[in-house]
Specification:
The structure is a homodimer. By secondary structure, chain A is mainly alpha-helical. In chain A, 69% of the residues lie in helices and 0% in strands. The first copy, chain A, contains eight helices and no strands. Chain A binds a DNA duplex through loops.
Amino acid sequence: MPDRRARRHEATRREILAAAWQLARERGLTGWSLREVADAVGMRAPSLYVYFDSKDAIYDAMFSQGYQQLLETVDAVPSAEDPRTLLRDVASAFFDFYVSDPARSQLLFLRVIPGFAPSEDSYELARRTLERLGEVLGSIGIDRPEAVDLWTAMVTGLASQQVSNDPGGDRWARLIEPSVDMFLARESPAA
Amino acid sequence: MPDRRARRHEATRREILAAAWQLARERGLTGWSLREVADAVGMRAPSLYVYFDSKDAIYDAMFSQGYQQLLETVDAVPSAEDPRTLLRDVASAFFDFYVSDPARSQLLFLRVIPGFAPSEDSYELARRTLERLGEVLGSIGIDRPEAVDLWTAMVTGLASQQVSNDPGGDRWARLIEPSVDMFLARESPAA
DNA sequence: GTCTATAAATGGATAGAC
DNA sequence: GTCTATCCATTTATAGAC
């Protein structure tokens, strides 16, 4: 049972990540230091290096965790036969995901941190997550790559505008349904 | 003619801003220091304080300059009677503006710099610029606020995806025309 | 695994001579 | 207006004792 120590180690890693997320939400994705993370978990900064090789390694773990959460979010959308229903549900889920944590969205969807690039593994997870999103759209016949690209642009655009220009409001949230209708009118006129 | 000195002062300010833009493009919006800006213009860092009160003051001037450029970009779009033509031109102009300088786009459209907020004046310029954009859309009958919001979300979404997921390519650029058609099909079915 | 101590660098900003 | 000198804070990261 050598797992005892390994499990504790993993738990502490998670605790550190949770503290980093909290700080990122409060002061911006790049607005926190290792000292502050250490304080938040009751450690001194150097001790963090037992769990992460560098600050960028923390960002990388956050990146990975964020895409894991997105994957779960996508998978949690109830399947539906009706394209309109499914599209609305997926769009809402993604929109909420994006808006509920703008710092996370900056990390996952924008290149905001100077010098940081996700590791190979993390990038692969991101790729798989977006691929899954494509599969969900494919399940209702949206399978042209251009259609998928158009859909992602539309939904990320709505969410990004909501965050930047009406934080806390619903000015762009209210446009999800009209957008879905607009999209469907083009992509599956039969429906 | 006390302008001599004032004009030189203004010219140096512009030179400093140009250096800051250059560094922002090369190393990311927040990936540069005052020392580096000073080096780039052949000064020492403290001398910059003759021209700007702080680093945030430089960001504020960049913010203002960026929206000024966007205003000019919008105004440079040839007026057209045909909605489809005008929408395509405005969308392309905005898309190019966004994609051609991602660091500028982060500054203007995303809240990326911890602790920085534009001054009252700069914010007012931003507001006026976006208002102008609304007027251009209004000139072809797109005047419902929801329609304008939907349009901005769509175009910023396309540009943002282009920058993040296919830098240097045209994967989302090719979707501008289809997007405009999709939008028009909804907003002015008569056309 | 956690600590103290400290390196080593960098950051923005100020004081004061010239 | 520009400089040198320097402050003072902060940062990430390492060394080594416990």
